[in-house]
Design goal:
Blueprint: H1 8-19, H2 25-30, H3 32-37, H4 57-79, H5 81-87, H6 89-102, H7 117-123, H8 138-157, E1 177-178, E2 183-187, H9 191-199, E3 212-219, E4 222-228, H10 230-240, H11 245-252, H12 260-277, E5 280-281
Antiparallel strand pairs: 1-5, 2-3, 3-4
Protein name: DUF2063 domain-containing protein
Pfam families: DUF2063 (PF09836)
InterPro entries: DUF2063, DUF2063_N_sf
Length: about 280
Amino acid sequence: MSDSAFSLQQVQHWMQTVLTDSAGLGAAMRGPAAQTVLPLLPQDVEQLIAPSSRMSGGQRLAVYQRGYFARLLECMAGQFQVLRQALGPELFEDFAREYLSVYPSQTYTLGELGARFPQFLAETRPDRDAPPAERDSWPDFMIDLARLERAAFVAFDAPGAENQPAPKLTTADTALRLAPCVTLLAFQFPVNQYYQAVYQGLEPPLPPAWPSYVVITRRHYQLGLFDVKPLQFRFLQWLQQGRSIEEALTLLATQPDIDHATAAMLWQIWRAKWLEWGFFTTG
């Protein structure tokens, strides 16, 4: 088969198809995706890729394919550093390779590469078909950890309040708004404690299940991850849903053992801390 029968567009499409297939060069060329573009077999690759003095055309193409996936795996490891430590480098790479075969990169930016990794871990957990009461807990922890790391990665580039004046203790409640980069997350495990310990250079054991509530924000271009109490989390959810602080306080006063005076007192305590942590803007 002569390469003169192939258009440049066909060749480009074929190369993209085989280079981005995680199955390996030979399997990629035999696969239906590549065969649909150009019906070539591995021994035919020399028609498209010229050999060098040291390598055949197929070997040269394989170098590019390995380099492409090495870069993707490097990006995945960078986006999920704590999860990589929790799983161990080899097991993490196994998960990442399988993920890339199921959810290959689809965008021009590698920032979206790990977007569906938490979903993938949930879909492929080994005990996914078992009743919930019979499932192991460690996959739940890994999924929680992946969710936290992905959310932190997204928050780093999310719209923030860096160009707006920071609110002060004297700022009126009516002027306060949650910063646009604030992310609220609920987990089955204390994943933020584990996350913080790893970033401090420690090697913490996997924790037992314990519900946790985390707020991610960014202040002065630095991320902050903060654990909050369930009631604080609910209050912040009300604000994120568009309620005013006054409306959120009214709802807070309907909670068990909390009246209007207690709600007002709690708000003053929370307010000072949350202003310091960068939860609010005046925009």
